[in-house]
Amino acid sequence: MKKLFVSFFAITLLFSCNKSTKSNEDKALDGKFDKYKDGFVTALWKISPDWAAGVGYHKLDSVLVVPNEAQQKIELDFINAQLDSLKQFDVENLSDNNKTDFRMIKNQLESSVFSIKELKSYEWNPSEYNVCGSFAEILNGKYDSLEVRLRAFNAKMNNVPAYYEAAKANIKNPTIEHTELAIAQNLGGSSVFDADLNAALKQSKLSETEKKEMLEKAKVAKKAISDYAEWLKTTPNKTPRSFRLGAALYAKKFDFNIQSSYTADEIFKIAVDHKKDLHDKMFVLADKLWTKYKGTEPKPTNKLDLIKQVIDKISLQHTTPEKFQSEIEKQIPELTAYVKAKDLLYIDPSKPLVVRKEPAYMAGVAGASISAPGPYDKNANTYYNVGSMTGWTAENSESYLREYNDYILQILNIHEAIPGHYTQLVYSNQSPSIIKSILGNGAMVEGWAVYAEKMMLESGYKNSDEMWLMYYKWNLRTTCNTILDISVHTKNMSKEAAIDLLTKEAFQQQAEADGKWKRVTLSQVQLCSYFTGYTEIYNLREELKKKEGDKFNLKKFHEKFLSFGSAPVKYIKELMLSKE
Ligand code: ZN
Ligand code: ZN
Asked: First CA to last CA across the chain, in angstroms?
């Protein structure tokens, strides 16, 4: 009897003791991993000061890293040391936040090994070498006094000649497309070393000697840049590399960049089916709308022609260049009120979105974009930058406004602002992980914005046949981006076939299609992020809906999904399904 009691007691004691030490151990492990992350980030900034500056860490602004062999060895040593350190953590025992951070760090490190040893774009992409952007950011930044920033600018200039010498030593059989881009971007950006620097020096309180020294060095920097451009123009390149990445490298780059549960081949098939599905839905709507917009005109026999003619007519409903920004400003509170009324997700009112005219140094980049505060500057404003059409020809403005007509402009605002990018960013800043801020997954971020468009329309937002037809056209863009990217890089798609796909099957203007062709010759994989992320998020939602039946709650799903920060969808999915 006594014995039994003792052993029973011992077991419960053992059990509870085990339980409590286990969670203490886990807490200790998480603490240890948090420390590891701090060290990782500090070491990462040391080898990549430009990346650091880009996210608001400015302690290393005066350093320009020379991309030579010695630097590559430093990077590989860093990667191997970090991969080794990761081995001391059992990922299963970490918190959810640290589990995803662990996997994102590991992916980043392995992806860097792939870039250095297999992708080797530092050999064939001369546009990877350009110092102008990081110098321009020092001049444009508001994070410190002008004098402090100019002194960092001054010290950073020391390495510019060595930087371009290392570039020349690395480059072998570059692609023609990236060579031309490198020449244009380096020459275009080099005004930062004369006009822009001159203007900043005039405003500054630096001594005349210091100013003179900087102007001398700037001349040397500018010459190094023009010499590099000249070298690219005149060095014989008899066997240039093709801009097409090829199936083997593409598949690997896709896995590292998108971090999806789908392979490139799988998402390609899904995109092709989705395009067909969109065409079928669009035909039904366009056919129904024909008389309203085309009266008694005879219907074309080709289905795609019929859709295009109706779209062209609806696109004539648009705002003016003068009202473009105020139209966007007006829609933001409408969207917020709608999301609230329909209980779609919580929007934190303490972090308002500021709509502004695109600042001069960003001009010409995109019609609309979001500037979010980085991890070192969380309390700064989030801006919705709107491009202005001042100085455009009437023809160009008209074409742009037809593209961003009254229907598409609303979808654009859903995508960029509410409940798209801006809303996701507010949630992401609440999940306190610097890793997710700096290594955030592009497919998750873009996928969320694309998912938000569909979700808003499904909930009834401004529903009409016209709205749905235009939404499908917009969605065709991301779908065809994926088809285009994979076809061009792995299936040898010709330029002619590519332009046909974009203009005839995705109803794009010639100028837009030409721009997209240029983009696909210069980048790889990124164009797939929108559709892949969207597909994964949508499918996850449908899977949970099926599983939970009546208990499924859309608002809860959105808030839970966003609470993991900008992690790859496949990891969020794993965590959400395991919580069931
Ligand atoms: Zn018009
Ligand atoms: Zn986006």
From this structure: 43
The one-letter code for the residue type at 467 is M
Ligand closest to the CA atom of residue 425: 2
Q: Give me ligand 2 centre to Cα 367, in Å.
A: 12
Q: Which two tokens stand for residue 445?
A: 């971020």
Domain that holds residue 192: 129-243
d(CA 216, ligand 2 centre) in Å: 42
Residue 565 CA to ligand 2 centre (angstroms) = 16
**pLDDT tens-digit map of 227-238:** 999 999 999 999
DSSP codes, 233-299: HHS--SSPPPS---HHHHHHHHHHHH--SS-HHHHHHHHHHHHHHHHHHHHHHHHHHHHHHHTTPPP
| Cα of 571 from ligand 1 centre, angstroms | 46
The residue among 298, 336, 245 whose CA lies nearest residue 528 is 245
Q: Please tell me the predicted confidence (pLDDT) of residue 359.
A: 77
Assigned domain for 55 exists: no
Q: Tell me: the pLDDT tens digits for 510-557?
A: 888 999 999 999 999 999 999 999 999 999 999 999 999 999 999 999
Residue % of the chain over a pLDDT of 90: 82
What DSSP line would sit under 481-532, residue for residue?
HHHHHHHHHHS---HHHHHHIIIIIS---HHHHHHHHHHHHH--SGGGHHHH
| Domain co-membership, 155 together with 119 | no
Do residues 205 and 285 share a domain?
Answer: no
Q: Which ligand is nearest to the CA of 314?
A: 1
AA letter at 346: Y
Measured CA to CA, the distance from residue 157 to residue 193 in angstroms comes to: 10
> 353 — phi, psi (to 5°)?
-95, 130
CA distances from 482 to 67, 534, 539 (A): 32, 12, 17
For residues 385 and 273, membership in a common domain is answered with yes
Distance 402 CA to ligand 1 centre (A): 6
State in Å: Cα 547 to ligand 1 middle. Answer: 48
Q: What residues does 368 pair with on adjacent strands?
A: 386
What's the total number of domains in the chain? Answer: 3
- 61, amino acid identity: D
From the centroid of its chain, how far is CA 435? 15
**Ligand 2 centre from 413 Cα, in Å?**
10
| Residues belonging to the chain | 580
Q: How many CB atoms lie within 10 A of CB 283?
A: 16
Instruction: Quote the tokens at residue 470.
Output: 């235009």
Residues 528, 267 contacting (CB under 8 angstroms): yes
Q: How far is the CA of 390 from the centre of ligand 1 (A)?
A: 16
- Cβ-based neighbours of 206, under 8 Å, separated by 6 or more: 147, 150, 151, 214
Q: Which residues contact 335 (CB under 8 A, 6 or more apart)?
A: 413, 414, 417, 418, 419
**Ligand 2 centre and the CA of 281: distance in Å?**
24
Could you tell me if 506 and 280 are in contact, meaning their C-beta atoms sit under 8 angstroms apart? Answer: no
| 290 lies in some domain | yes
User: What pTM value is reported for the model?
Assistant: 0.92
**How much distance in Å is there from the Cα of 269 to the middle of ligand 2?**
23
Q: How many whole angstroms from 50 Cα to the centroid of ligand 1?
A: 43
